[in-house]
Amino acid sequence: MNQSDTTIFRPDYAVHPGLLLEQELEHHELTQAEFARRIARTPKLVSEIISGKNPIEPETAIQFEHVLGIGADVWLRMEADYRLYQARLAEVERLAASETWLKAFPVKELSEWGAVRRTGSTAQKAHDLLALFGVASPAAFQKRYASVSVHYRRSKKLRASREALLTWLRYGEIVAASEQAEEYNKDRFQKILLKIKGLTNEKIEEFHPKLKSLCAESGVVFVLIPSLPKTCLSGAAYWTRGKTPVIQQSLRHKTNDHFWFTFFHEAGHILLHNSKTVYADDENGTEDGIEKEANDFATELLVGKKRLREFIAKGPATGQEVTKFANDCGIHPGIIVGMLQHHGAISWAQLNFLKAKSEWTK
Predict the structure, then answer these.
(1) Alpha helices (H) along 69-203
(2) Any domain includes 313
(3) What is the distance of C-alpha 195 from the center of its chain?
(4) d(C-alpha 117, C-alpha 108), whole Å
(5) Looking at the 3D structure of the chain, how many domains does it have?
(6) Which of 167, 298, 318, 330 could disulfide-link to 264, CB 3.0 to 4.6 Å?
(7) Residue 170 in domain
(8) How far apart are CA 305 and CA 311, in angstroms?
(9) From CA 77, how far away is CA 22, in angstroms rounded?
């Protein structure tokens, strides 16, 4: 999304039609009183139109046309342009006072993405941000997004920003809206997840297009959106307009174990939980009932909960043993390493050489 794509030329001035009227009266050697008699209006109305206190209405514009020979459309266009210009000036003044609101958002990153202009006034940047969220004012933003139900799983040690979270989700929603997908079919998605499991041994540049395509076949949109500061998110699952499920990921942890467990965790939310809720997750976050269900779903699909427990029960595993177990499960060994670390079977420093990088490529 590029902010400049929606920018059009707008002159920074507008001529009030009262000025033209005043000039035309002088040109025709008409006093305001005489002109008022000719159009069957009061001198007060003519004076107020000239001073800008009263607008030119369509009927009045037609009367001007009869007397002065300038088309009614010209008068009405000038009036509309001037009123719009005045409204924009008022909006700039209001938005200029929104600096505190603006600072709560990751404007720097949004400018790098082209969603907010890199240079410009507070009012201009606030205008771009409002356009991104599809609202008309900071107050409208608060009202619109206060009602968004977000089930947020994150580590209690990390401080997150709701504004940053909503920005990341909104950007993903916009990207997702441009993607093509079939009508959602739950049964088809469940079957396709088994095919997607087979992609875990591939590099991200190889599996990414295949993953998007397979998801789209079952009516699910998959999007990768870079992580934003103070979001602390690995992924999210939500539905757009109540009918199209979206899985959104960030590559925040940059390793394939995090990526794939997050993907299948979010798939669990799509298949198991309320379509009216946004599920925003960090893999290291706290686990409640809903999150445990999504974790169990991912574990069962990738390995099998019973099978994983039995492997852990054998004691600390070597890299060779992990690789063999992963091959038996049909997944990358790095995913097994991540599971063992998560369950405390090995330390976070052990066997990381078996993981693969999942990073943004330029």
Answers:
(1) 72-96, 99-103, 107-112, 122-133, 138-146, 162-177, 186-197
(2) yes
(3) 29
(4) 9
(5) 3
(6) 298
(7) yes
(8) 10
(9) 17
Q: Please state, in angstroms and rounded to a whole number, the distance separating the CA atoms of residues 82 and 114.
A: 31
Burial class for 141, CB neighbours closer than 10 Å (0-12, 13-18, 19+) = buried
User: Are residue 191 and residue 334 in the same domain, yes or no?
Assistant: yes
The pLDDT assigned to 62 comes to: 98
Q: What does the mean pLDDT of the chain come to? A: 91
Residues 248 and 136 occupy one common structural domain: no
pLDDT bucket at 284, cuts 50 / 70 / 90: low
The two tokens of residue 62 are 């037609």
Contact 236, 266 (CB under 8 A): yes
Both 193 and 326 in one domain: the answer is yes
- Look up the pTM and report it: 0.84
Q: How far is CA 187 from the centre of its chain?
A: 28
Q: Give the residue numbers spanning the domain of 44.
A: 17-87
Measure the CA–CA gap between 176 and 193, rounded to whole angstroms: 19
Residues 134 and 253 in one domain: no
Same domain, 80 and 109: no
Is pLDDT of 10 > 60?
A: no
CB 265 within 8 A of CB 294: yes
CA distance 66 to 82: 23
| pLDDT tens per residue, range 181-210 | 999 999 999 999 999 999 999 999 999 999
Question: In the numeric block, which tokens belong to residue 139?
Answer: 């107050």
